[in-house]
Amino acid sequence: MHIDFLLDGFRANHTKDAVVWREQVVSYGWLADAVDRWGRSLADAAPGTVVSLEGDFSPNAIALLLALVERGCIVVPLTSSVEMKKPEFRAIAQVEAIVSVSADDQARPAHTAARPSHELFTRLRSAQHPGLVLFSSGSTGKSKAAVHDFVPLLEKFKVPRHALRTLTFLLFDHIGGVNTLLYVLSNAGCIVTVQDRSPEVVCAAIEKYRVQLLPTSPTFINLLLASEAYKDHDLSSLELVTYGTEVMPESTLTRFRQLFPGIRLLQTYGLSEVGILRSQSRSSDSLWVKVGGEGFETRVVDGMLQIRAQSAMLGYLNAPSPFTPDGWFPTGDAVEVDGEYLRILGRPSEIINVGGEKVYPAEVESVLLCMEGVKDVTVSAEANPITGQIVAVKVSLSTGETLPEFRRRMRIFCRDRLSGFKIPQKVLIVDEKMHGERFKKMRRAS
Amino acid sequence: MKPELVSLILNAVQELGEHNGVPLPTALDGDTPLFGRDGLLDSLGLVTLVVAVEQAIEDELGVSVSLADERALSQRASPYRTVGALADYAGSLIRAAA
Is residue A177 part of a domain? Predict the structure, then answer.
């Protein structure tokens, strides 16, 4: 009953391609049958059972997700990106049953001794609603488990929209990945999955399956530009690239626009806690966006964005409720406001305070990324007894320069582009990658 | 060791002057004031210089020292007064590390 509108669509489009997975294509007819099949084998599972679904985007994992929702279960998707944390996450989510879907798309169930008692689970059970538990990436701290009621989450997908052939770049256990999946399936679009999220593999999949929409992150767009993987592949099918989850460096936006004038860019704004807001960039080369849409309200309090959403989570399993008494979620993002448009500056917790002057890492990163031979940069604060903090940068280079050579070139380059206090005082040349599995920068000290 | 450190610091001061637009006097030597009375640098310039000197000492002498920490700031005579004072302070840390 919860996903009738999806299943009706699947039957009506039974010959259309639903999922491309490892060179195989499954149709909507196959998917509808698979959901039925899994539904029958779940007949023993009581509604409200907390089930971890461990896998990635694959035909059976997708069918299982839908069957578990239909059964009224509380689903905890986990991917291999959190492999080391799985035992901890299962314990936090009080997982009673584990369904793991292997790399060859075989599902295996297992049971645990947990007896879920969390108050948020009790609420879902008494409403007889399916649930969803998503762990935040924890790039700035501890991972929090957000509990959603699946019923309002599904609501916005009942409005028919235009679906494109979409590459599932964002992860299966991420709000962006879940959103992409439901959006495409509810509009009978096609999902193209990848086993590896490197620029080379992503570009090859776009070319081979004529992908039209790539939802991704600014970090991946940087990697794409730096790797030049786009030169070896025909990306002419690509119509739209959406990016969210972190601040877009202005320089990356400009370079992307120059290389791909025909591709529309759209910033999305989403959080595990409230879902994905529809957003509208002022133009493809603008960082100003209008966010909101039906079911969402936004307001700015003391320069910080707050959101009220019908599809907001019920709360965290492992942290106090973050909502204001009148139900707004403080995003923690500082924003500038221009009429109805917003520009997202970033997290004040990442602001570097150099002798009282404030520096946003994203601005400095944006300038450094314009330098020839700079593959990637991460700017962060370093404690210093003279000015409190200084601006430190880790940079990966393709030029083979020594540190003094690069530092000299960087100072000259930045002189006319950044105020003196924003020019990194400390430079470290590194060889390692600077993002996690979710392609977000990791600024926290490791 | 001191003349070597003085010249290393003067190089860093020169570089700072060229690239960060700090106006420098024509003659630079061990007595050149850095920070404080008649000093060439503001606090940001000082931080930048100190980090550059630390990195140069590490590159050229293979020793890692911290020239800006609580101990440096609690010296009776500031190690940042002049080029020579900074060279003396760096020298004492390098000897202690050896």
Answer: no
Q: What is the pLDDT of residues B49-66, one digit of tens each?
A: 999 899 889 888 889 899
CA distances in angstroms from B47 to A156, A262, A413, A425, B50, listed in the order given: 53, 46, 19, 7, 5
Write down how long chain A is: 446
Q: B70 and A415 in contact by Cβ < 8 A?
A: no
| Chain A interface, best mutation among B11, B13, B43, by max A CB count within 10 A | B43
Residue with tokens 């530092």: A407
Query: Which domains are assigned to chain B?
Result: 2-18+30-97 (1.10.1200)
User: Which pLDDT band holds residue A432 (cuts at 50, 70, 90)?
Assistant: low
Domain closes at, from A111, A129, A155: A155
pLDDT string in tens for chain B (98-residue length): 788 999 999 999 998 887 766 778 888 899 999 987 788 888 788 888 999 899 889 888 889 899 987 777 777 788 999 999 999 999 999 999 87
pLDDT tens-digit series, residues A147-191: 999 999 999 899 888 889 999 998 999 999 999 999 999 999 999
Residue A115, domain member (yes or no): yes
Which structural domain, as residue segments, surrounds residue A387? 351-429
Interface A:B, Cβ pairs < 8 A: 49
Q: Determine the 3-state secondary structure of A121 from DSSP.
A: helix
- The complex scores an ipTM of 0.81
Contact A175, A275 (CB under 8 A): yes
Q: Are A314 and A125 in contact (CB under 8 A)?
A: no
Question: Is position A359 within any domain?
Answer: yes
User: Which residues, other chains included, contact A304 with Cβ-Cβ below 8 Å and sequence gap of 6+?
Assistant: A330, A331, A332, A333, A334, A335, A348
CA distances A324 to A330, A408, B30, Å, are: 8, 48, 60
pLDDT above 60 for A139: no
Task: Please report whether residue A237 resides in a domain.
Answer: no
Q: Which of A268, A279, A273, A272 is nearest to A244 (CA)?
A: A268
- Cβ of A420 under 8 Å from any chain B Cβ? yes
Contact A415 B21 (CB under 8 A): yes
Q: What is the pTM (predicted TM-score) of this model?
A: 0.74
For A389, name the nearest residue in chain B, comparing CA atoms only.
Answer: B47
Say if CB A124 and CB A48 are below 8 A apart: yes
CATH number at A17 reads: 3.40.50.12780
d(CA A339, CA A351): 25
The domain spanning residue A408 has which CATH number?
3.30.300.30
In this structure, what are the phi and psi dihedrals at residue A66, rounded to the nearest 5 degrees?
-65, -40
Query: Is residue A177 packed enough to be buried (19+ CB in 10 Å), middle (13-18) or exposed (0-12)?
Result: buried
Cα dihedral B53, B54, B56, B57, rounded to 10, equals 110
Looking at the structure of chain A, the number of domains it has is 2
Crossing angle for the helix pair B2-20 and A403-415, nearest 10 degrees? Answer: 30
